[in-house]
Design brief:
The chain is an alpha/beta fold. It has two domains: about 140 residues, HAD superfamily/HAD-like (Rossmann fold, 3-Layer(aba) Sandwich); about 80 residues, Putative phosphatase, domain 2 (DNA polymerase, domain 1), CATH 1.10.150. About 45% of the residues lie in helices and about 10% in strands. It has eleven helices and six strands. The chain has a six-stranded parallel sheet, with helices on both faces. It is globular and about 55 Å long. The two termini are about 20 Å apart.
């Protein structure tokens, strides 16, 4: 690893918050007969294909809230929930604003905050990330959203935008994510990288072995582990 960074930029969905577990719990409560795991995965599976349509300019720039709603309208039909009212659909779509943090996230972020500037760098829109932070007690110093740059990760505009906003050198910023593709894109822009192992992101089995991504500067079992490795015990 280079010298310690001064800014830590965090992917959010899956890295800091448990989107799958939260959606499964809420959907399972609302619709007990539904396969909530399948519903959550179907919703998330269309996330990247929809973003690709925007990136290919087949769709205009669109907030993630609106992409989520477009996908939701489709999967409600598939899961036999087409009868839901507009109010019910709106409430369900906002579950992404109510995602719960992983157990180590808040404590780890608080430790890191003592020595680093910490912020999400997420494709989520500003209102989504603000409400999520409020709901999950995420102690960000500020919120960085793809909405600021009108580009989704892994577009270089997002990573380079952080450097511009903070007048930082690439080596002064570390991208933290549970997704190798996000880190690879950040690294191509010169940022430092930290991989967080999240075997339960898609509702997987907790005994999955740790994937050692030696290509990145740090590989961590949790955000608490990241804090420890960066000297914030």
């Amino acid at each position: 690893m280079h010298a310690k960074p001064r800014i830590l930029a965090f992917d959010t969905f899956g890295t800091v918050v448990d989107w799958h577990g939260t959606i499964v719990k809420e959907v399972g409560t609302l619709f007990p007969r539904l396969d909530a795991h399948a519903f959550a995965k179907a919703w998330r599976n269309q996330y990247h294909p929809m973003m690709q349509k925007v990136m290919r300019q087949e769709l205009p720039w669109t907030k993630i809230d609106d992409l989520h709603r477009t996908i939701l309208n489709v999967i409600l039909e598939e899961f036999g929930l087409s009868h839901l009212s507009e109010q019910q659909r709106r409430h369900l779509n906002l579950v992404w604003h109510r995602l719960n943090a992983w157990p180590d996230s808040v404590s780890g972020l608080k430790k890191l905050k003592t020595q680093f500037v910490i912020a999400p760098l997420s494709n989520g829109n500003l209102s989504l990330l603000t409400h999520m932070a409020k709901h999950a007690n995420l102690p960000w110093d500020c919120i960085l959203s793809a909405e600021l740059f009108k580009a989704y990760k892994p577009d270089p505009k997002t990573y380079l935008g952080v450097l511009e906003l903070f007048e930082a050198k690439p080596s002064e910023v570390m991208m933290v994510a549970a997704h190798a593709s996000d880190l690879q894109a950040a690294r191509s822009c010169g940022l430092q990288t930290a991989f967080i192992f999240r075997p339960l992101e898609w509702g997987g089995h907790p005994s999955v072995p740790v994937l050692m991504h030696e290509e990145f500067d740090l590989t961590c079992r949790s955000i608490e582990d990241l804090a420890l490795q960066l000297g914030c015990p």
